Amino acid sequence: MLVSSVIRQIEAAAPPSTALEWDNVGLLAGSPTATCYGVLVCLEVTLEVADEASRLGTNLILAHHPLIFRPLRSLRTDQPLGALIERLLEDDLAVYVAHTNLDASQSIGTAVALAEALGIEQARPLLAEREVSLGTVGNLPHAPRVESLVEHVRQALRPARVTVVGDRGRQVRSLALMPGSGGDAVEAAAAASAEALLCGDLKHHDALDALSLGLTVIDATHYATERPVVGKVAAYLRERLPQDVPVVESTVVTDPFAPAG
């Protein structure tokens, strides 16, 4: 099976046309005509992830975060990004990125995966940006108080840290989700009549906006709120690729806030 054949399966569920205009998605390293011997699914590519891919014999890395985001002014192999790209090329590792197009996917997207991990019911898109749906909002099976919801999040996602802004004693029936850097969804969550928003990367001024709107926000980190999509995408590909093309979930923890060791 060619790398291009795997890409077609990915793009059937997360079309590049749904990526936001500032994003950089698609095949960012390697050749579409190379033979694919296995797929490693991860959130981002690091040297440790490249080591893992080589060790497992998976020569296509499917990542959520772009390997190359800003235009390259140089490719110095004594610098981190240059060294990583050099390593990928030396080991014939291809890298395909599905970023905001994966966020927008209503079948295998980051919000869909997070909603499933938390047991959210009656989920629907939270907001639309340039006709692309992002995030989700739905109902919890019961209406736990915030402290119980935080414990549920800890058990389901195992975040390195959890920060709560707003009323900790309130009951939460309607929960909005914006995985990753989702603090800018505060107004959308309030407009959707959610009692709380679960996201990552909550900023100071977004937190103040949440307080003024009477919205509780739970920041469970960028990494932990996006991590469920790795298993979701891997399961999707396993159903569609031949058995001789293994699909593996990366076990490398790339959360910069995780405890060392």
Report on the structure:
It is a single chain. The protein is an alpha/beta fold. It folds into two domains: about 5-100, NIF3 (NGG1p interacting factor 3)-like (Udp-n-acetylmuramoylalanyl-d-glutamate--2,6- Diaminopimelate Ligase, Chain: A, domain 1, 3-Layer(aba) Sandwich); about 105-225, 3-Layer(aba) Sandwich (Udp-n-acetylmuramoylalanyl-d-glutamate--2,6- Diaminopimelate Ligase, Chain: A, domain 1), CATH 3.40.1390. Helices cover about 35% and strands about 20% of the residues. It is built from ten helices and eleven strands. A six-stranded mixed β-sheet has the order 5-6-8-9-10-7. A five-stranded mixed β-sheet has the order 1-4-3-2-11, with helices on both faces. β5 and β6 (about 130-140) form a beta hairpin. α5 crosses α10. The radius of gyration is 19 Å and the shape is globular. The mean pLDDT is about 95.
Summarize the SSE layout with pairings.
Layout: H1 3-13, E1 26-29, E2 39-42, H2 47-56, E3 60-63, H3 80-90, E4 94-97, H4 100-104, H5 110-118, E5 121-129, E6 132-139, H6 146-157, E7 163-165, E8 174-181, H7 186-191, E9 196-200, H8 204-213, E10 216-219, H9 222-226, H10 228-240, E11 247-249
Parallel strand pairs: 2-3, 2-11, 3-4, 8-9, 9-10
Antiparallel strand pairs: 1-4, 5-6, 6-8, 7-10
Within CATH, the superfamily of the largest domain carries the name NIF3 (NGG1p interacting factor 3)-like
**What's the shape?**
globular
CATH topology of the largest domain: Udp-n-acetylmuramoylalanyl-d-glutamate--2,6- Diaminopimelate Ligase, Chain: A, domain 1
What would the average pLDDT be, to the nearest integer? 96
Compute the separation of the termini in Å: 38 Å
User: What is the total domain count?
Assistant: 2
Please give the count of helices: 10
CATH class of the largest domain: Alpha Beta
> Could you give the count of β-strands?
11
Structural class: alpha/beta
Helix content: 25-40%
Secondary-structure element order, N to C: HEEHEHEHHEEHEEHEHEHHE
Poorly predicted runs are none
Q: If you compute it from the alpha carbons, what radius of gyration comes out, rounded to the nearest whole angstrom?
A: 19 Å
Strand order of the largest sheet: 5-6-8-9-10-7
